[in-house]
Amino acid sequence: MKRFSRNILNRGICGVLAVAMLTVTGAPALASTSEELKKQQKELEKQQKDLEKQQNAIESQKKESQSGLNNANQNISNIEGEQAELQEGIDAANEELVGLLTSIDLIQADIDDTQVRIEKTQQEYDEAKLQEETLYDAMKKRVKFMYEKGEVSYAELLLRAESVGDMLNKAGYVEELYDYDRKKLSDFIEAKNAAEQYGIELEEAKSELETSQYELKEEQAHVEQVIDTYKKQYANFDVQLAKARQDAAVYSAQLQQQTAQIRDLQAKIDAKESEVKKAKKAADEATAKEAAEAKKKKEEEEAAKKAKEKEQLASNNQNTEDNTDTAKVPTEPASSQPKAVPAATGSATGQNIANYACQFVGNPYVAGGTSLTNGADCSGFVYAVYKQFGISVPRSSYSQATYGREVSYQNASPGDVIYYGGHVAIYLGGGRIVHASTAKTGIKYENATYRTILTIRRFVG
Question: Is residue 98 a part of any domain in this protein?
Fold first, then answer.
C-alpha cells in the first residue's frame, strides 16, 4: 500500500514539471538583440524559480502525504493487532464456554438417565414388594389353616423362628416342612430379597440424582459468572454464546458415543479377563488334583513298603527295634509373602496416590467437604488426596478439568483424574475408579465408564 501511494505521488510531480516545461519552451520568440536576450534570460530564470517553488511545494506535500500514509499504516497495524488480540480473546472465551456448556449438557443427560432409572427401579421395587406381601399373606393363611386343623407343632415351627432366614438355616425345620410349603417359602424369600435389592438400588439412584443436581447447580453458577464477564468485554457476545451452545451440543453427543464405545470395549476386556481367570483356576485345580493324587499314591506305596518290611522282620523272628526310617512325604513350604501396605505418604507417583485414595473407601460424602475421614465431595476428595503428597490442585471440579495435561482413556494411568462434567474421580487402572460418590454411598469404587467421560487429566508425571 505504501509503494502504491508513493508511485501516484511521483507521477503527479512529473506531470506538473512536464506542463511547466511546455509552458517555458512553448514557442518563445527569437531574440535579435542583447537586451532582448538578457530579458529573455531573466524571464526564463524567473520561470525556473517558479518551477523550483512548485517542486518544493509538491515535495513538501509529498512528505506530508507520506507522513500521513505512515500514520495510517501504523494505525492499521495497531487496529489489526487489536483485532487479533480481540479475536484471540473471543476464541479463548468460546473454547472455555464450549467446555463448560458441554459439561452442563452431560450432567443434565446423566440426570435424565438417573430419573429414568429411578422410575424403572421404582416400578420393579413396587412389583417385588407386592409379590412379597402377597406370598406373606398366603403363608399367614397357611399357618392359620394348620393351627385350626390341629397341626400346632407345625404352625409353631413357622411362628417360632426369629426370621425367615433363621427358619431356613435350621435343617431340622426345613425337613419337617411339606414340599408345598417349602416351595412357597422359597418364593417368598426370593421376592423379599428382590424387593430389598431394588430398594437399595432405588435409594442409591435417588442419592445420585441429588448429587448430580447439586453439581449441576454449581456448574451453572460458574458458567453464569463467565458469561457475565465476557459480555462486558466483547460486543455481540450473544452470537458467540449461541454458537458455543451449538458446539457444546455436538461435542457432548460425540463424547457420549465415545464413552459408550469405551464402556463396551471395557466390558469385553473384563469378560475376557474373567475367562482367563476361570481357565487359570481350572488349570490350577487340575494341577492340585494331580499333585494330591500323586501324593496319595506315594503315601500308599510307602505304607505298603513299610508293611512288607514288617512282615519280613516278623517272619525272621527279629525282635530288634525297627530302625527303618519312616519315609516322609516332602512338603513345600508355604509361601508367605506379605502384601505391601500402601503408605499414606511417599513419593508422589500416580500409583501411590491411587493406593492412598483407596484407604478411605466407606468414609462419608459431604457437599463442600475436604476431609478424607469426616467427609468430602468429589473434588474435595481429589484435592485432599493430592494435598497429602504436597501437590496443590484446584478445589472445584471444573477447575480440575483444565488442570495438568490431558491424556486419552487408552493411556490413562492410576492416579489420573477423570472429569465427567461436574464430577471427578481418581482412576485406579483396569477400568475402575475411586470417588466421593453420593451422600448415600460415600467414598466408593465404581466402573470408570459409569458416566460420560469429558476429559482425563494427569497431575503428576
Answer: no
Query: What's the pLDDT tens digit per position in 61-103?
Result: 656 666 665 666 566 556 556 556 656 666 676 777 888 888 8
- On the 0-12 / 13-18 / 19+ scale of CB atoms within 10 A, 447 is middle
Find the mean pLDDT for residues 203-228.
Answer: 89
Residue 143 has pLDDT above 70, yes or no: no
Q: What is the mean pLDDT of residues 57-62?
A: 65
In a shared domain, residues 49 and 148 = no
pLDDT for position 325: 40
Cβ density class 243-259: b for 16+ within 10 Å, e for less: ebeebbeebbeebbeeb
- Here the cell at position 202 is 432405588
Judge if 207 and 253 occupy the same domain.
no
Q: What pLDDT is recorded for position 438? A: 94
The domain total for the chain is: 4
CB atoms within 10 A of CB 83: 10
Tell me, yes or no, whether 256 and 177 share the same domain: no
State the pLDDT confidence band at 424, using cuts at 50, 70 and 90: very high
Same domain, 359 and 442: yes
Cell of 79: 487496529
| Residue 310, in any domain of the structure | no
**What is the gyration radius of the CA atoms in the chain, in angstroms?**
46
User: Please, which residues have CB within 8 angstroms of residue 48's CB and are 6 or more apart in sequence?
Assistant: 24
Confirm whether 446 is domain-assigned: yes
DSSP per position, 248-305:
HHHHHHHHHHHHHHHHHHHHHHHHHHHHHHHHHHHHHHHHHHHHHHHHHHHHHHHHHH
pTM: 0.57
Residue 306 lies in a domain: no
The mean-pLDDT minimum among 29-43, 51-65, 316-330 falls in 316-330
288-295 LR contacts (CB < 8 Å, sep 24+): 295/329
Helix ranges (DSSP H) in 149-236: 152-160, 164-169, 171-176, 179-233
**457: three-class secondary structure by DSSP:** strand
Residues 370 and 447 placed together within one structural domain of the fold? yes
Domain of residue 267, residue span: 234-290
